[in-house]
Amino acid sequence: xxxxxxxxxxxxxxxxxxxxxxxxxxxxxxxxxxxxxxxxxxxxxxxxxxxxxxxxxxxxxxxxxxxxxxxxxxxxxxxxxxxxxxxxxxxxxxxxxxxxxxxxxxxxxxxxxxxxxxxxxxxxxxxxxxxxxxxxxxxxxxxxxxxxxxxxxxxxxxxxxxxxxxxxxxxxxxxxxxxxxxxxxxxxxxxxxxx
Length: 195
Known about the structure:
The protein is about 55% helix and about 10% strand. It has seven helices and five strands. The N and C termini lie far apart (about 55 Å). The relative contact order is 0.18. The mean pLDDT is about 95.
């Protein structure tokens, strides 16, 4: 049986608000978010860069957020661009890696090529278990990069530097929350970088 349009509307808003209310009361999450912004800002001030990747909607998020860092977040923003690269931008490179080395290596191979000690890698995975994101996080760590995982309620027991976990198991709600958290992270990082 189909549900009403009003129920769909209300369900999305209520589910999203419930998650946002949990995050508002979660001081540990706020502290991790601040730590992420500090780490990104310090890396950039030291001449390093931020690399971001995800799959599907999270790939779009990686590209969106890298654009906010590179161009501007707000209309009156006159700042310099920041060195942030979405590893999801080059379809020729990703398909070549996927075809020749396996899809699970599409991000880790890029990190091996352009990642440097002192850079940061942020993986976005609603499940926290995407193999290509986990391998990228491992590659980043092996190169002396700081690691950030933006995820939902996940099954990973890995010890990444910063895990920003959205308190939900619903992919759509996690993605909505990721968008908000990503924008907050950009704003906090810009505030610290251009004090």
